[in-house]
């Protein structure tokens, strides 16, 4: 019998072991893993916008491999991309609507009851308290067409004035800086620039960890480039740099004004470009005159020689590119810091040519879609709520009365949160985001969300920190369970495919928004919005004549066949794969000129003292973590790639002084709270500074609620802290 079992040719045991040739570059695979077909779909994690081949068998997605020829990732994927299917199979998926009962417990409800409770409560609140009593908070993690439908249903159909997205937390600074400097929210680059620069400057950016595929493009650079990293920590990217400037936290603005001073005084500027294509340079020259090398060195903690070396490297570069992410964006003066980089790019003529640019790398997968089409920071397609002509245009295209379109902008994210705290907002609708974890100074928010009259959370999971507080949880489909488009950091539209059905009674966010419209009684207003691709056609028409014009894109199939398409792509465009902005030196202001914008630096909002003698830095931990870990924590493989518990990094010198050992539990405290964390003693953090990753829920119990005045983006990155083996109450 044993012999028969060993040599059996049929049966489940044999099928599990049987190998077959793989067409995916992996030699042989178990036969059970060979798909019936594959579908190309842009990844649902970060803004890089990699394309994956999703393997489908019996109608279910079973595996992924990176798309070989896609111009973004060139056949590579990061750990998160390889594990992109795992979160879809999590045990805590929201499978059906959950409604809080009289006993305070969430219990299963029908979609009909859920929708009735939703619209009845929101309509009651609106009648009783007025237009400012309702708000929604959306995300950069749903497809563009869903964002557009949400914004239209909420603002035009339901009369909700206030709605913002969690892209406010990561990209608002870049948006504002680009709008003011260039005349439109327009990242000018293409990823090919990472390979074509001979000098790359990374400021507050750690692409080795945060955007590993983009770092792979840097590695492909054949020009033996100078790689300059400006960051207080010796990050993984800094370790690979040719120059690392470990400046004092949040001294960026003074540093870049000091660099501008040197470049001007040495004559290392492109006067022809300045005269032809910019405005305000002479005022900028006068402004930076006081930012001498000595003054900039003193404030930044660098040396005068460092500054001259930095400036000379920029001067000698033929193709210099400047890249920034959250280290700049998440700052109390982030807009002006981003514009200081833009100013240097403009004055040296490093924009519009291959390998140049002032380039913000986006965070969330579809933050660019949110920026352009979500109806939060602007009227659809980069139009202006205050502009009567724009309102008429949108009303005509959508075939609605103009008076349905608000004549004012929404409150920003922090102002909506303040509205909740002040009890002005009584009803809140949260879509695909987890602010109880991600919002700054989270302890305060958690308490106040409990006081809302009606909180609706629409999410893949019913277990998020925010969903646990909801009166109503709506189960939403995740990436791979619906279709639409994402727009990545380099402005490339990519296709998201439905490769498997959502579980239980979960629906695509698109279908939920349509249901809300039906129950609210405004369904007729959105009769043309019958599918994501139908909405894409509407967005094309809305974009006509705008800097983000995409009227030349025929359909989804064209996007897929071309390996994604970068905007702008108006009718008649023929260049497909790689296109950068401003090659003609013309910007989006009416006069075609970019603006030099500047301002005196502001005082750091919270400084160290005897009680809180350390600067706490926050940022990305590992390439396997993502934001609040709502999805990445579902993967056992990804969890093995980072510490289970929240940790704090500290320099050896400080650890010795405090008698702290490696791996020891300590208390990290700020004025807002304290958390318990394990220590990692490491030389990459300077004495007097400590570092904690943002991915752990504990970290934002400590962060400071301070905001850039122009972008309203939170300043997550620094605050004053204490670290001790004892809780503050014991000291």
Description:
The chain is an alpha/beta fold and 731 residues long. Helix content is 31%, strand content 18%. The chain has a 7-stranded mixed β-sheet with strand order 7-6-18-17-16-8-9, with helices on both faces. Helix 5 (144-157) packs parallel to helix 23 and helix 11 packs across helix 15 (304-316). It starts with a helix and ends in a 7-residue tail after the last strand. The mean pLDDT is 93.
The best one-word shape is: globular
Q: Can you tell me the CATH architecture of the largest domain?
A: 3-Layer(aba) Sandwich
Radius of gyration over all CA atoms, rounded: 26 Å
**Biggest sheet statistics:** 7 strands, mixed
Oligomer: single chain
**Tally of discrete structural domains:** 4
User: What percentage of the residues does DSSP assign to strands (E)?
Assistant: 15-25%
Low-pLDDT runs: none
Q: What is the CATH topology of the largest domain?
A: Rossmann fold
Topology:
Layout: H1 2-6, H2 12-17, E1 19-21, E2 28-30, E3 37-42, E4 51-57, E5 60-66, H3 79-82, E6 98-100, E7 106-108, H4 111-129, E8 134-138, H5 144-157, E9 162-165, H6 172-182, H7 193-196, E10 199-203, H8 207-210, H9 212-219, E11 226-230, H10 236-239, E12 243-245, H11 252-265, H12 271-277, E13 278-279, H13 281-288, H14 293-300, H15 304-316, E14 320-324, H16 326-329, H17 334-347, E15 357-360, H18 367-373, H19 388-398, H20 413-421, E16 427-431, H21 435-438, H22 442-449, E17 454-459, E18 472-475, E19 484-487, E20 492-496, H23 509-520, H24 532-543, H25 556-561, E21 565-566, E22 594-595, E23 614-619, H26 636-639, E24 647-650, H27 652-658, E25 665-670, E26 673-681, E27 689-693, E28 718-724
Parallel strand pairs: 8-9, 8-16, 10-11, 10-14, 11-12, 13-22, 14-15, 16-17, 17-18, 23-27, 24-26
Antiparallel strand pairs: 1-2, 3-4, 4-5, 6-7, 6-18, 19-20, 20-21, 23-28, 24-27, 25-26, 25-28
Helix pairs in contact: 4-23, 5-23, 5-24, 6-17, 11-14, 11-15, 11-17, 14-15
